[in-house]
Specification:
It is built from no helices and eight strands. By secondary structure, it is mainly β. Strands 1, 2, 4, 5, 6 and 8 form a six-stranded antiparallel β-sheet that branches. The protein has a two-stranded antiparallel sheet with strand order 3-7.
Length: 111
């Protein structure tokens, strides 16, 4: 994802801001099944990476359902919470300022 929250295109990789990137990992789309034949699913995670020497403002992706993005970890701040609701919640489309040379992980929790 680009800092504006939109999907990156081929030409985006040659721009100056390409020193930062986000990726959404959708655990709901796993092809695995358990021993009972039931489909396995995991959470949806958002990973933001900033290799730039200045902070970058990322627009968080659109809503997946009714819910919010919960910050799990930011290398400039440490652990927010390993699981469950956190005090650091962010609405879809809101802006998150990621410190220079840092990484943040969010989890989508539906309400």
């Amino acid at each position: 994802l680009r800092p504006d929250g939109k999907e990156m295109r081929g030409e985006d990789w040659g721009t100056a801001w390409a020193q930062c990137v986000g990726m959404q990992l959708d655990g709901r789309d796993m092809p695995d099944i358990d021993e009972r034949g039931k489909p396995q699913a995991d959470s949806v995670f958002l990973l933001l990476l900033n290799a730039y020497y200045d902070p970058i403002e990322f627009t968080l992706p659109a809503a997946l359902s009714t819910g919010k993005w919960h910050l799990r970890f930011d290398t400039s701040r440490g652990w927010a919470a390993p699981s469950g609701p956190t005090a650091s919640t962010h609405a879809p489309g809101s802006v998150y300022s990621l410190t220079d040379r840092a990484m943040a992980v969010f989890e989508w929790l539906a309400v």
